[in-house]
Amino acid sequence: MAELQIGAPAPDFTLPSDGGRDISLSEYRGRKVILYFYPKDSTSGCTVEARAFRDHLEDFRALGYEVLGVSRDSVRRHCNFRDKNELNFPLLADTEETVCHLYGVMKEKSMYGRKYMGIERSTFLIDEDGNLTAAYRNVKASTHVDELLAALRGA
Predict the structure, then answer these.
(1) Are 48 and 148 in contact (CB under 8 A)?
(2) pTM of this prediction?
(3) Domain total for the chain?
(4) What tens digit of pLDDT does each residue of 38-52 get?
(5) Domain limits at 49?
(6) Would residue 46 show up in a list of annotated catalytic residues for this protein?
(7) Which of the following is catalytic: 15, 46, 100, 145?
């Protein structure tokens, strides 16, 4: 897989969403997109991050951005996660890891001495023309949304 390049077209994809329909990145042409990848629904860090995106969605929209969340969880798990946390943006189910590989977010991790492949918490900014404008990798769930919002506001 080629390394993603800032300024190059963001890899397009189509994935099922918690809203009951497939969503393609190309549907968002003409709008800016925050595409964020997170490891797993209903875990503590992912819940903190998702709630922060929920709470600041109108701030991001005021800056012209839509938010899309992606993990390897199923649509059903996404629906439960959405409902439990009153999430107000689409969650996309990449159960086959296709989009995760396109964006290079699958990384080797270690927990309790066991190594496994998992999603590295990452966010990509995509402009109105579908080009990648920024990539934030290995971000912290507790501070990332506030830091991203500050960066987009030029603070």
Answers:
(1) no
(2) 0.94
(3) 1
(4) 999 999 999 999 999
(5) 31-153
(6) yes
(7) 46
